[in-house]
Amino acid sequence: MAIASINVANDQQFAKGGVKSITLALVGAGSQAPVVSTEGVASGSIGTSTTINFEKESAKMTVSMSKGDGLSLYNVSIEGYIPKVSGSLMEILHSYAKSDGLIGKVSNYDGADYLVGWDNVLATSTTSTDFPLILESMEADTGAALQDQNGVTVKFSCVMATPPAQY
Amino acid sequence: MALQAINTSAAAFGLFQHNQVVPGVESISLFQATTDVLAGSYSAGVFSIVSASLPTSVIIKGEKEKSKMTYSLTQEKGFALYNISIEMFIPMMSFDLHTRLEEFRGKALMCFVDMHDKYESATPFETDGAADDDANSTTLKRGKYLVGWDSILGTDDSTNQNSNFCMFLDSIESDSGAALADKSGVTLKFSCVQGQAPLRVSVT
């Protein structure tokens, strides 16, 4: 895509912040067929998936680009808070940690969905990439006082050669 | 081919365009010289082969960002030789992997090297080239090179290309690691001598 101008419309100045949920699929999951157009628009299914809902106003996606001598690399990170620590929740998160890699769709409160963990440049095919999304860390905290929060902070991250494409 | 200029501000070798090339070896497809028939054609630096004629091969896929191909040219008294080296890291040291690697001992090998980088059909071939269809996954092709055969040291028989200077397994280095955070795995090194740089492969 050629360089283009960036205009900020009035309604864009009041875009809602925050990530609502992330839908995750294993790399190579059934019916996986993500497509990113020349304009960076995502379409197609990420395959058989599950969804993690975050506590409101706790989750965010950050995308940072760095370019040294070589390739422009996008470090994508999704961090959020899941309330109420439980054995079953930690076991589910452990299954994400053990997986061979994930493809995700990040849903924001402003209505935009982004494809993470898969891009045209680094992926081998629509069902294979060596640079998927991974569960980078989880931190469960029961709190101490009764009014403390009880929950798990999770962080997913991936490296991409292009920015996350928007659905 | 006549001498040509190399200019980092030109399209073909553009400094900024080629900064978008994705580094690293994704996997190698190994096959035994003569036993697994290599039947393609060579022309102008490109080795062409139809997909139905691809030799039966085994794939070695290294851990991402830990596998690379290097080659160096030395020219003494007029004869140019390329020393090509492929280094790969396979995670998890295991007995099964060890026994599989044993089979590579003493075998004359050739391989196709698949790169992480993809290229377009038009010049300058790379993922961020002027034609700019890098976002179209259907037209991109993964960079692929042939190692173990070249048109100068090898015999150019289109029914079974062979060479007396194939690729060999140079070394195996297994490391179990010590601390829990260490990596357990095996570093493999393959090397060969060629009269030409690794040929770009076109599979049709």
The gist of it:
With 167 residues, chain A is mainly beta.
* Structure class of chain A: mainly beta
Can you summarize the main beta sheet of chain B?
7 strands, mixed
Q: Largest chain interface and its two residue counts?
A: A-B, 23 and 18 residues
Q: Which outline of chain A best applies?
A: globular
Number of domains of chain B: 1
Notes on the structure:
The complex is a heterodimer of chains A (167) and B (204). With 167 residues, chain A is mostly beta strands. Chain A has one domain. Chain A has one helix spanning 87-98, and strands at residues 19-26, 35-36, 42-43, 49-53, 60-67, 72-83, 102-108, 113-116, 123-125, 128-129, 134-141, 151-160, 165-166. In chain A, the strands form four sheets. Chain A has a five-stranded antiparallel β-sheet with strand order 4-1-7-8-13, with no helix packed on it. A four-stranded antiparallel β-sheet of chain A has the order 5-6-12-11. In chain A, strands 2-3 form a two-stranded antiparallel ribbon. The longest helix of chain A is centred in the middle third of the chain and has 12 residues, at 87-98. The model of chain A has no long low-confidence stretch (mean pLDDT 92). Chain B is globular. Chain B has one domain (22-203). Chain B has a seven-stranded mixed β-sheet, with no helix packed on it. By secondary structure, chain B is mainly β. Classes of the chains: A mainly beta (167), B mainly beta (204). The interface between A and B is medium-sized, with 23 and 18 residues.
Write the layout of secondary structure elements.
The complex is a heterodimer of chains A (167) and B (204).
Chain A: E1 19-26, E2 35-36, E3 42-43, E4 49-53, E5 60-67, E6 72-83, H1 87-98, E7 102-108, E8 113-116, E9 123-125, E10 128-129, E11 134-141, E12 151-160, E13 165-166
Chain B: H1 15-18, E1 25-32, E2 41-43, E3 46-49, E4 58-60, E5 68-76, E6 79-91, H2 95-102, E7 109-119, E8 141-147, E9 154-155, E10 162-163, E11 168-175, E12 185-194, E13 199-203
Parallel strand pairs in B: 3-13
Antiparallel strand pairs in B: 1-4, 1-7, 2-3, 5-6, 6-12, 7-8, 8-13, 9-10, 11-12
